[in-house]
């Protein structure tokens, strides 16, 4: 059996906290069985690594691994996405379609944000868990599938059951083994370690010297609540790496990047952030330009290689890392519903007035004559980022504030790689 350390390294999990190690150990132990697993923990604690470990160490590792974000699929189509549908099952069903449970036969399905599943879908899921049976939407034929289910949630399931939003019987079926990931504030020893690793990664990415925290900043880092957990810490490390000229960061500087410090009251966040928010726009644009410059340099390098050799396969092989960096890695199966609904076409309402008002929260600080599309995209990105920050990464609340569906927000997060 691979050791906990080796698995953590293989899956990019940092930290030496005992509870974190216990979670990884449990994943290793449960992997070879077909037992359903429920991964719990606050938003941003790293729940998505656990099903990957379980799948990779199971006898299903050569089978499919499908990750489904239950919170991002509209209620009207989720049954069809998961279980498939017959031709003519509903308006627009011009062809029959296999659902993820059929496609993943012999493999693993990761049901992320499982607490968001509608009650009717929960009934269907319970049946699969009990005897592997399901029925396509619009069909009467019972089908069988052999799928291992790992689910995750950041909700308090006891509450959800009490409010009758989640079936108790399904909860017990799903959580035969529960793996809990501790919040970052309970892993004090790991916080600085994680910050150093992220700072080093971003220094490399942006080709800058690494930022370092002074002692008082380290103390502040460990005292902070980290409602957004590792995700928030990573974002803070990135912002500081990009925006700060001075590479040595003291507590006073760090404080500017930690919302709600002191009281954690939203009102304080509003007050504190208002001034700095849009004076930072220019810096955010710099970051975008910075990224573009880096990509351009990488592309130049690749083009040069291609000009030097006429064997493109060899160049591809030798520059695998670079190609992945520029074009991304599409290996992992990411499930996004296929049909385009009106909801998917939803866009954020960005004010178009030409007379900027400094009190207006959409006001773009500098008079930058740039391409309209870029500026609109930046504004949208900023709105999303700020809303997610305000809600500590909670997509539901952010989507509500932005006036778009959670699913649209999810797509935008993917689009902007947030
Ligand atoms: N121990 C860790 N070491 C390194 N990176 C981590 C660790 N834990 C989390 N991360 C990083 O933090 C980010 C958030 O993790 P992840 O997406 O797994 O969160 P989550 O628990 O699924 O949150 P949510 O409930 O909001 O979906 C990812 O970029 C992940 O790589
Ligand atoms: Mg997640």
UniProtKB/TrEMBL annotation:
A Pfam family that the UniProt record links to this protein: Sigma54_activat
Domain spans labelled Sigma-54 factor interaction: 13-242
Family matches, as PROSITE patterns: SIGMA54_INTERACT_1 (PS00675), SIGMA54_INTERACT_2 (PS00676), SIGMA54_INTERACT_4 (PS50045)
InterPro entries: AAA+_ATPase (IPR003593), AAA_lid_NorR (IPR058031), Homeodomain-like_sf (IPR009057), HTH_Fis (IPR002197), P-loop_NTPase (IPR027417), Sigma_54_int (IPR002078), Sigma_54_int_dom_ATP-bd_1 (IPR025662), Sigma_54_int_dom_ATP-bd_2 (IPR025943)
Keywords from the UniProt entry: ATP-binding, Nucleotide-binding, Transcription, Transcription regulation
Keyword Nucleotide-binding: yes
SMART domains assigned: AAA
Protein name, UniProt field: Sigma 54-interacting transcriptional regulator
Organism of derivation: Salinimicrobium flavum
């Amino acid at each position: 059996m691979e050791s906990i350390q080796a698995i953590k390294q293989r899956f990019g999990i940092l930290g030496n906290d005992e509870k974190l190690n216990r979670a990884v150990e449990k994943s290793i132990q449960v992997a070879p069985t077909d037992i359903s697993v429920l991964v719990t923990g606050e938003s941003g604690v790293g729940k998505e690594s656990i099903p990957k470990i379980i799948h990779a160490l199971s006898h299903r590792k050569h089978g499919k691994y499908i990750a489904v974000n239950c919170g991002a699929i509209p209620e009207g189509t989720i049954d069809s996405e998961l279980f498939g549908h017959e031709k003519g099952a509903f308006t627009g069903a011009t062809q029959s379609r296999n659902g993820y449970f059929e496609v993943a036969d012999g493999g693993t399905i990761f049901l992320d944000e499982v607490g968001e599943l509608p009650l009717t879908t929960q009934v269907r899921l319970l049946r699969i868990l009990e005897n592997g049976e399901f029925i396509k939407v619009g069909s009467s034929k019972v089908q069988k599938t052999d799928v291992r289910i790992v689910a995750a949630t950041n909700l308090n399931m006891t509450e959800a059951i009490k409010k009758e939003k989640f079936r108790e019987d399904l909860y017990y079926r799903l959580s035969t083994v529960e793996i809990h990931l501790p919040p970052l504030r309970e892993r004090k020893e790991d916080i600085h370690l994680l910050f150093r690793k992220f700072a080093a990664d971003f220094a490399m990415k942006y080709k800058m010297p690494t930022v370092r925290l002074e002692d008082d900043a380290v103390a502040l880092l460990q005292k902070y609540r980290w409602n957004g957990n590792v995700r928030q810490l990573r974002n803070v490390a990135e912002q500081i790496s990009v925006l700060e000229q001075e590479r040595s960061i003291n507590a006073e500087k760090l404080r500017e990047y930690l919302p709600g410090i002191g009281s954690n009251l939203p009102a304080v966040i509003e007050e504190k952030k208002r001034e700095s928010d849009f004076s930072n726009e220019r810096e955010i644009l710099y970051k975008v330009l910075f990224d573009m410059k880096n990509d351009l340099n990488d592309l130049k390098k690749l083009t040069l290689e291609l000009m030097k050799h006429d064997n493109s396969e060899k160049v591809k092989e030798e520059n695998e890392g670079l190609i992945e960096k520029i074009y991304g890695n599409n290996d992992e199966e990411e499930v996004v519903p296929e049909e385009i609904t009106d909801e998917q076409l939803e866009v954020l309402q960005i004010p178009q007035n030409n007379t900027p008002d400094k009190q207006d929260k959409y006001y773009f600080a500098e008079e930058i004559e740039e391409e309209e599309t870029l500026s609109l995209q930046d504004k949208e990105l900023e709105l999303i980022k700020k809303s997610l920050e305000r809600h500590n990464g909670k997509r539901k609340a952010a989507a509500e504030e932005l006036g778009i569906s959670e699913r649209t927000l999810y797509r935008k997060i993917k689009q902007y790689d947030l």
